[in-house]
Amino acid sequence: MSAETPPILALSGVSKTYGAVRALSGVSFAVGRGEVHAILGENGAGKSTTLKIINGEVDPDQGEVRLSGRLTSTAERAQGDIAMVHQELAVFPNMTVAENIFVGRMPRRGGRIDFARMRARAAELLELFGLQIDPGTILGQLTPGQQQIVEILRAVESDASLLILDEPTSGLNNLEAETLMVLIRRLRASGHTILYVSHRLHEVLAIADHVTVLRDGQFIETLAAAGLCEDDLIRRMVGRNLEPAATTASATLSDAPLALKIEGLTMPGAFTDMALELRRGEILGVFGLEGSGAEDFSQAIFGIVPPVSGRMELLGKPVTDLSPAGLMRRGMAWLHPNRKEAGLYMERSIADNIAAPVLKQLSRFGMVNRRATKARAQEDIRRFAIRVPGPEGLPKQLSGGNQQKVALSACLASQPEVIVLNEPTRGVDVGAKAEMHDAARREAAAGRAVLVFSSDLPELLRLTQRILVMRSRRLAGEVQGTAMTEESVMALAAGNR
Amino acid sequence: MTMTDTRPAPQDSKPARSPGFGANILPLAVITLAIFAFLALTRENFATAQNLNSILFGVSIDFLAIVGFTYVMVMREIDLSVGSVFALTGTLTGALLVSGWGFWPAAGLALAVAAFIGFVNGFLVVRFNINSLMLTIGTMLLVRGLANVLANGLGGQTYPREFRQLARTNIFDIRLTVILMVVLVLLAWAFQRRSALFRRMCFIGENVKSATVHGIRVGRIRILAFMASAMTAGLAGIFTASRITSADVRMGLGLEFVMVTAAIIGGASLYGGKGDLRGSALGLLLLALVLNGMIMYDVEPVFQQFVIGFLLIVTVAFDTVMNRRRG
Ligand SMILES: Nc1ncnc2c1ncn2[C@@H]1O[C@H](COP(=O)(O)OP(=O)(O)OP(=O)(O)O)[C@@H](O)[C@H]1O
Ligand SMILES: [Mg+2]
Hints:
Number of helices of chain B: 13
CATH topology of chain B: ABC transporter involved in vitamin B12 uptake, BtuC
Strand content of chain A: 25-35%
Number of strands of chain B: 2
Oligomer: heterodimer
Shape of chain B: globular
Radius of gyration of chain B: 21 Å
Order of helices and strands of chain B: HHHHHHEEHHHHHHH
CATH superfamily of the largest domain in chain A: P-loop containing nucleotide triphosphate hydrolases
Largest sheet of chain B: 2 strands, antiparallel
Largest sheet of chain A: 6 strands, mixed
Bound molecules: adenosine-5'-triphosphate, magnesium ion
CATH topology of the largest domain in chain A: Rossmann fold
């Protein structure tokens, strides 16, 4: 940056407290025009808060934010030349895909909305991600990953000179994330400035020019990304070294008893003839790209949308009551892929959240033992290192990653024998991710069975012993052992062999 | 793995309260007391034993109807058929008595009819995912029609003497319904504070998808709540029929709007997840005091409707604004 051109964005001494929680204290850093600038930090470090202040959604208690050298107010920034993709989906589920992309600035001709042009442009944008979706589709019908892409496209299409992306890839699979990287490079080349937050460090290293590290709401440093490796970033985020990530040993389990057996499961239009065998002590992965039917399959085996035909055996007995309540009673638990949609009660205490699936165990004669409820929450807060003031805190006050930890605690609260995890580490930091993986391994080591649906392929490769791959709404194949690589799984999932 | 736990969690922060339980009882009690004091000081015939008794008696009967209604609202549903079910149950009991039935069989059958209507409401909401607001407007009209047919058939005939005595039953000089109200408020206090069922209802009201994923039997609880709502409305209807001594097509007209207003004043929300029967009782009392005050100040009775409508709009607007803020 030369002395004459001020940075496009400069924060100085920005602080924000929520009640007694210090989200940010005295954060100062600058972002140069036309660069990709990543902000890193653990869950609750203050990244989203920083971004929301920049975007004019949150009013800082102290400090200044300058855009191209000019001091701005929160209200000005809210109106300004800034677009943001939020960590939590902020879409209009009842409007069409095209309307969601062009919300607020629909193309017009002669005073009327030019729907034809809008649809054509939307289709073009969707095509960037290889999505063959009719732009007239109601958004709520898309998968969460697809909705995330629509939200990204909305920001891209706004052509704002400062683009803020808060964990845009947390719901995307590798291919889609790669596409986003290409898109970001292209935007940078055309002069846009991009602020980027992600817990997927390899992405950060691949696209960022500079990295700003936050820790506990404080600015640690801004450094050039060139020449750094993941460990460098982790060390700066957590302030010390981290043990290398463990991988799951591939044990021979062929003689362990079957925990879940599925045969010929079919739901017309969603998936056909699905089968799997999951043994006690095993961690089995299921991978599929958008539209592969993996998501529907996951919902079906928990009876959220019951399948039409097929057989399911849970812990050696046929399933007769295929409903979430019936399956939970028989020892199954299921983590929803999108914590904003289901898995949490934002307005109720953490203690209540974790107690929700186990109210029965926590009560006698229908009356809840509140002391036990609180003790249990305290234990989980410690076990998963959830950053909350206490069991009475509300999920809506937590950072995204910490919300995810609460959702997982609730899922495991019933001490299930068969655990189905959907996108279990969405939006959690490297350390917490490792903790959650350890938790899953502990469950497996204790003889429980774990089934993981994840769009994060590296996560599946590290965590599971075997991966089922779905393509075109049926089983495409299975990989395990040394054959389990990113390439082999993607080849099966995309069908280009 | 020990990395995040080395960081001190912000311990000093004051925990936020879960809503839905007792948050606005105290301010509400203060406001109600203030209105009471105002009327007592400015109007001499307000604080008479007779007037106060009659207010409390009316509130205690309406209170019976708001019991189930409040818990339906906790689950983010609404039951606008309460007023009609109230009328049908009361009139049916009376009609059966007139035609020579005994009290218990008559009341039992009428309550069973109420329960059935509640079941149908709940079943349709659960099975076909119908919006309960629209559905129960339909039930409201339909049931009102039935009640009117019955009332017209009776043609202003007074109910048998024993039935007319029911509402006037006293225990230690206190009306039976007032005692019932006190007992129910105490039970509600324990129910809301401790019971697993009330929590489940709150969970369903706040996020039905989360509740489903957590293995809560949403459909069953919803149907039960609608049945409870119709049955408590029916119970109140029986006492009311006894109190007014003869069939009347105006019985329970507009009751549902009084209930919504009172329940929201008392801490329930159209957006579900909260509600407090103690608050609902105070809400009813507050509305009754306001209406009584208007009479004391010789305001034209036609304005009562106006005031109820006004308060309904204010409370609903307030509820909506608060809900937007929490989102
Ligand atoms: N509305 C709120 N009310 C109370 N506390 C809040 C609120 N929003 C954020 N916080 C607190 O501020 C801190 C920073 O949160 P923030 O969302 O910025 O974290 P983050 O770095 O984005 O984390 P993550 O990686 O998990 O998304 C956290 O401790 C969080 O609990
Ligand atoms: Mg965040």
